[in-house]
Amino acid sequence: MKKIIYLFAIIFAFSFVISAQVHSDAALRRIVQQDAATRDASGKLPTLTAAEHALRADVYSTNRQFPQAREHWQKILDVYPNDAVIPKTLFGIARSYMWEREYDKAVFWFDRLTGDYINTKDGREGLAFKGASYVRMNKHAEAARTYEQYITMFPTGERVETSFLNLIESLRETKRYDDANCWVEKVRQRFAGMAIETNALHARLRMELHRQNYAEAVRAADVLLNRRNFANAMASADEVKFLKGLALEKLNRKAEAIAVYSSIPDSLNSYYSGLASEKLEKLGGNAGEIRRTASVSANMTNTYPVMFRTELIRSAKSRGIDPRFVLAIMKQESSFRANAKSPAAARGLLQLVYDTAVKYNQKAGYSNFQADDLYQPAVNIAIGSVYIADLKTQFGGMYEAIAASYNGGEDNAARWLERSRPKEPGVFASEVGFAESKNYVFKVMNNYRVYRELYTEDLLRR
Known about the structure:
The protein is an all-alpha fold.
């Protein structure tokens, strides 16, 4: 037993070292120099081993330098067409185009991968991501067929649960509401009592709200609340209560709506608690007496400090962005660590990735720009503020949508906003389709709520 434990420890340590080598700035600088030094007169890369090309592609890819990664992947395809690394290579090329939002090219490469290697793990992954590419192209009928294909071919596959849920959402997008509800029932039959059942029922609630079937939305909310099972699900009791209250409002059942909103516990840690307080205030009458207000204490300035005030006022406020919102993102992204770098190669205070930063560095006033410049607070905040200002314009000033886009991508946030009916922040947040992005929105907006209570827009203590 000790030998087995020791072996696993060695494997884990080796994997950690390899991961660090791929993600590190030093690794990126090394291969950039190596590639530059060894290109021939026409600028072509030399032929290396398949493993070395794959490693360099991984370094470039994890640092978001996708064209350079594809150079190495293409060498593998050209020189080593029968190597075992081919499925991973095809998957890498397809995913790189997804990151660059060139979804038609992504589908082409996913088709090539699934056509030849469907029975590999990369092939299965490719089929799921092909469906995701169709979604981003607004080809929801094709996405639905792809997700149903995955469910049929791989009933125990790694992404079968998300394929069920994505199929329901794709059918909703094509207005095949009855079919979507049938798949909700299939989920309930196969996954009874599991988190995916809660997620499917939540999809039904959102669908009925979108259709303005408010009585059905209330019934769907009641089914969820009566189950009392939100563990590991993408919905919470607070969220479902809020959506039920909204549906009751639309049905002009004001007293019932007030009762539901008031049942949401008052907490600074609950995004929907804050929205419920706002709803109760707007409903008037004695709602203000029903609802207490979560307190923000003075000592919370230690946890929610103002950092880099000069840079924030100069770069954020001048572009129409509330500096407190930028602080809320900064707190969540890096905990104010200027030298932070994520496994996805996001750098600095606002965790900007290189391929995003190069779209905005000129407008931010930094024409001579390198990836490592993002570790400088002034550069990071300036470029990040231009980026956030662009997102604010795209999403009509809704900070929830900005946060969702910042974490989950602009295409996804635009789709979630389009699905939101009515276009209220709480409805939008419920439509966010990635668990990580949804939790990110909640955390950023909770941070923003506290910062607004503690500081003025000029970042002065109230």
